[in-house]
Amino acid sequence: MKLTHDQIATIEKNSEVTLYPKRGIALAKGKGIYVYDTESKRYIDCMTNIGVTILGYGNSDIAKQIAEQLETLTSTHQSFYSEKRAEALSEITSVLPETLSKIIFTNSGAESVEAALKLAMTATGKKKFIAAVNSYHGRTFGALAATGQEKYRTPFLPLMPEFTHVPFNDLTALKKALSNETAAVLLEPIQGEGGVIIPDKNYLKQVKKLCSEKNILLIFDEVQSAIRTGTWLASEQFGIVPDIVCLSKSLSYGLPFGIVAATKEIADLMPKGAHGSTFAGNPLACTAAAAVIKYIQKKKLLKNADVVGGFFLSQLKTIKHPIIKEVRGSGLMIAMELTVPSTMYIKKLQDLGLLTIPTAATGIRFLPPITFKEKDVDAVIKIVREVFK
After folding, report:
1. Which of 85, 163, 86, 160 is nearest to 130 (CA)?
2. Domains of the chain and any CATH numbers
3. What are the tens digits of pLDDT across the range 69-100?
4. What is residue 249's DSSP assignment?
5. pLDDT at 219
6. Which of 31, 178, 241, 306 is least surrounded by CB atoms within 10 angstroms?
């Protein structure tokens, strides 16, 4: 049965708990960098489901591997060994820093953060954490406690009392907040939801040094910043390796998947049964993750994200308008900050065939597939210029 847009909207309004504001269109299919709605209107996808579909849509090579696994075996509990899980582990550990050699499988970014917090608590015997103001780490209770945005936290207070939030990119504030009871510092190397905020060049190195001196773990949430910024981990660009890193979103071609990677010394202190998930590490998602990593390497897409991202950033900066305050980004993770709320402008971009996403209250976030080319950037810039005449 093929449903019209109005039928789809009616069913969702009547039956679904509305957790997100609706964008007013129903997406029906995707191909390459484009998605199409139920009325066959085409959109350039610079939203990618909030950074998930980084290879775009309709990749026949990856889809074939997923389809074959779907017909073979979709789920294998982690109490059994799995060839596909082993393959995914081999691919994942081959692209991560050598010290991050032990993996916990999860199903999402929020679950990865939850597992990382448990890992830090069991490894240190401490229960207090430091996170950043304007950070975003997910909406489950542990991840929500870490999130430094009151609009997400307030309805569910009191949360875990062990979290203290300090301004991002402020080493002095961090120093004051640390204590002998601090288990870990949890940061996004580049704040995504908070506005694509890039710290000073030496900030993260100083944080790492400070944590090492005080025997405090450093956790990076790279759920959004990994891969699309031009390196497997954005933290590579700052010359440091965390003790624990959380990943998800971009690794598995849109299937639910996530990981926590940690050093062997930390991971060995995690008791059996301290974390687990029925679906985590299933053969279907692991097949997708291994295929995505191989495809990125084969097509040299990390370099593409860096080069095309630089071009994208430079072109956006040529657009001048009184309400455009700043354009900033790393690779294909870019934000245009306005002096006014961005919602109306995001709607105008959508009407002209370009999907973007808010960041903070006044930002427009561009998270295109890392298969983007300069000609695709030109098409985006043409639409953005039309909106900001």
Report:
1. 163
2. 21-51+300-387 (3.90.1150.10), 61-298 (3.40.640.10)
3. 999 999 999 999 999 999 999 999 999 999 99
4. G
5. 98
6. 31
Q: What is the pLDDT of residues 43-66, one digit of tens each?
A: 999 999 999 999 999 999 999 999
Sign of the CA dihedral with 78 first, then 84, 87, and 88 last: negative
| Pair 28, 37: CB distance under 8 Å | yes
Contact between residue 258 and residue 88 where contact means Cβ atoms under 8 Å apart: no
- Tokens standing for 101? 């050699």
Structure tokens, 139: 């909406």
Cβ atoms of residues 285 and 339 within 8 Å: no
pLDDT band, very low/low/confident/very high, at 350 (cuts 50, 70, 90): very high
- What is the Cα–Cα distance from 337 to 332, expressed in whole angstroms? 16
Tell me the two tokens of residue 282: 């299933």
Q: Within a 10 A sphere around the Cβ of 258, how many other Cβ atoms?
A: 26
Q: How far apart are CA 291 and CA 51, in angstroms?
A: 18
Tens digit of each residue's pLDDT (9 = 90 or more) over 275-288: 889 999 999 999 99
Asked if 188 and 224 touch (Cβ cutoff 8 Å), the reply is yes
Residues 6 or more apart from 345 whose CB is under 8 A from it?
338, 364, 387, 388
**Angle, alpha carbons 199-259-203 (nearest 5°):** 15
255 φψ region: left (φ > 0), alpha (ψ -120 to 50), beta (else): beta
Residue 140 has pLDDT above 90, yes or no: no
Q: 211 has which bridge partners? A: none
